Amino acid sequence: MDIVTKRPRGTEDKLPREIYKWQTVEKVARDTAEAYGCKEIRTPTFEHTELFQRGVGDTTDVVQKEMYTFEDKKGRSITLKPEGTAGVVRAAIENGLLNDALPLKTYYFTRCFRYEAPQSGRLREFNQFGVEVFGAAEPSSDAEVIALANSVIERLGVKNVLLKINSIGCPACRAEYHKALKEYYGQYKDKLCDTCLERLERNPMRLLDCKSEICSEFKKDAPMILDYLCDDCKTHFESVKKRLDALEIKYEVDPLIVRGLDYYTNTVFEFVSDEIGSQAAVCAGGRYNGLVEEIGGSPLAGLGFAMGLERMIMVMDSQKAEYAPEKKCDLYIATFDEETNIYAMTLAQKLRAEGFWAEYDTVGRSFKAQMKYANKINAAFCMVIGSDELAGGFAKLKRMSDGEEISVKLDDGFAERLNTLIMDISL
């Protein structure tokens, strides 16, 4: 196959025949976020590379191995965004949004890019729905953000998704934890993979993310962060759990969740499903109280999550979840000659202005071919306009599902009558 007609590895085409799935998920996510008081924000597809080096963390796999980075024509280093949070923080600082009434609640749909081995549920270009909240330091905001993500999942009808939570503490108690990790893993230095050997000195918590068989065995007996939390972090985490209990949101405490990005503090969480692989996360997030300051703003609490849309749709498909029905053509208007075709064009235009999906022949098909086409596009109704119909102001409306024909008047009330007939089909 010619490379020009083949999509790049790790990307997908979202085709018209399945786009209704995406529209269903996006509408549920949007409506849910807005019910929680979030407002949409849209940020650029690419940012200055330094934003991700500083915000995501230069010791992470994302920054070290996975970013799509290039120089523009003036030699500036630019990166296609590998995640959504850093760009939102940058936009909030640059545009003064953090000077407005707090908390600032935002949501977004964005494409992200990471160079990693493509596999089921893991692409190099992928889509995320995300929520970011600023200026809310209380445990109630942690529970609120988790509840928002949980609500999206429930409203989509997705079952058997497990919420896992953890606390990775603040910089003070995490420093003590890092010492314990270095001491523990130090005894296995000669057995660690090269990546973990490097992480041991720069960011030992990343060792708990390693998927290699040998390193995974070591982490079973590794020190747990929950044993090193300071009193404030313990109190915060217990308060988050208390609120999740009050909301009747089931969860499991998993001390091995540390998240793959450096900006997280305190609460971290994942919603995981085993239907698209072994415990694959469909949504993940947490608190990042130091990120705004790290990027260049004044100290301000922050938290949020990102939901992978490809993975969510994979889970929904595996569970045969219901999507909003695919939009179908309401009316196809079949014609015989130029005069009737022009009438069909004007009628279709009026119906479209009223919100109907109306079609007529624009490619010169015969009458028989027009009727076949009406069937192919699953038109709810078909109407034939000939010279007699033009002269008399009446036409036969054929319901395609059963062939029943109804005589209708072609006047200003036609759109209203068509809507009633369509509603009857829906019911």
Q: Any chance you could write out the topology, listing elements then pairs?
A:
Elements: H1 19-35, E1 39-40, E2 46-48, H2 49-57, H3 61-66, E3 68-71, E4 77-80, H4 85-94, E5 104-113, E6 125-134, H5 139-155, E7 162-167, H6 171-186, H7 194-202, H8 213-218, H9 231-246, E8 252-253, E9 265-273, E10 280-287, H10 291-295, E11 302-308, H11 309-318, E12 331-335, H12 338-353, E13 358-360, H13 367-376, E14 381-385, H14 387-392, E15 394-399, E16 405-409, H15 414-426
Parallel strand pairs: 1-5, 7-8, 12-13, 12-14
Antiparallel strand pairs: 2-4, 3-4, 5-6, 6-11, 7-9, 9-10, 10-11, 14-15, 15-16
Q: Can you describe what's shown?
A:
Helix 1 runs antiparallel to helix 5 (139-155) and helix 5 (139-155) runs parallel beside helix 9. It is built from 15 helices and 16 strands. The radius of gyration is 28 Å and the shape is elongated. Helix content is 39%, strand content 21%. The chain starts with 18 loop residues before the first helix and ends with a helix. The chain has helices spanning 19-35, 49-57, 61-66, 85-94, 139-155, 171-186, 194-202, 213-218, 231-246, 291-295, 309-318, 338-353, 367-376, 387-392, 414-426, and strands at 39-40, 46-48, 68-71, 77-80, 104-113, 125-134, 162-167, 252-253, 265-273, 280-287, 302-308, 331-335, 358-360, 381-385, 394-399, 405-409. By secondary structure, the chain is α+β, with helices and mostly antiparallel strands. The strands form 3 sheets. An 8-stranded mixed sheet has the order 1-5-6-11-10-9-7-8. Strands 13-12-14-15-16 form a 5-stranded mixed sheet, sandwiched between helices. The model has no long low-confidence stretch (mean pLDDT 92). It folds into 2 domains: 3-170 and 230-318, BirA Bifunctional Protein, domain 2; 331-420, 3-Layer(aba) Sandwich (Rossmann fold). Strand 3 (68-71) and strand 4 form a beta hairpin.
